[in-house]
Design a protein that fits this description.
195 residues, alpha/beta, Spore Coat Polysaccharide Biosynthesis Protein SpsA, Chain A, 7-stranded mixed β-sheet, two-stranded parallel sheet, 7 helices, 31% helix
């Protein structure tokens, strides 16, 4: 396996685009706002904060599309975000990851700056927490390089839920500043409301 060398003092960006998009009925990453696909919008949000940004893709996306950014192919087919995260951790050598889901177009620099300013390098992950819905928001998060082995053990034990993992690790809760900015797009009806 070829590892991507990265300075441990810098942070690598990862845009997660490899989901099945089954509820949408088409690849969400390719949906466009102002003639720009969602994956490219997400990359541009991360670029000011990262030394490099990668796309986490599934095998079909990699074979069917050409992207202008480096890709990391999901090694764990149909295992959700946890499989994509582990694939990226395996490929990006000793670098923390700033992760963003492609289907969260309302997030702004404000949320990313707030996340980075609250980063706790001693914890496995830094992410926001929605107290109203009682859930973490791992689709915008920082994963430290030492998270890999703990997350891998959890995954190999047959667990796939990032929510349960973050609860087990007692990850610090950063309150979401603008809850509506964390809305993601899953269904065609939701997509129509923003178009």
């Amino acid at each position: 396996m070829n590892q991507i060398n990265s300075d441990s003092d810098t942070i690598a960006g990862v845009v997660l685009i490899g989901g099945k998009s089954s509820r949408m009925g088409k690849d969400k990453a390719l949906l466009e706002i102002n003639n720009q696909p969602l994956y490219k919008i997400a990359v541009k949000k991360l670029l000011p904060f990262c030394n490099q940004v990668y796309l986490s893709v599934n095998k079909n996306q990699n074979s069917e599309n050409t992207y202008e950014y480096p890709t990391i192919i999901d090694q764990y087919e149909s295992q959700g975000p946890i499989g994509a995260l582990l694939s990226c951790m395996n490929e990006i050598d000793d670098s923390p990851l700033l992760v963003l889901g492609c289907d969260m177009p309302f997030l702004t620099d404000k949320e990313i700056n707030l996340l980075l300013s609250n980063r706790n390098r001693n914890q496995i992950c830094t992410t926001f927490y929605n107290a109203q819905s009682n859930i973490y928001e791992p689709m915008l998060s920082i994963w430290e390089s030492h998270a890999r082995h703990v997350l891998e053990s959890y995954f190999k034990a047959g667990h796939l839920s990032l929510q349960k993992f973050l609860r087990q690790q007692d990850i610090h809760k950063i309150n979401t500043p603008e809850e509506s900015n964390f809305s993601n797009i899953n269904y065609p009806e939701e997509w129509k409301t923003i178009m």
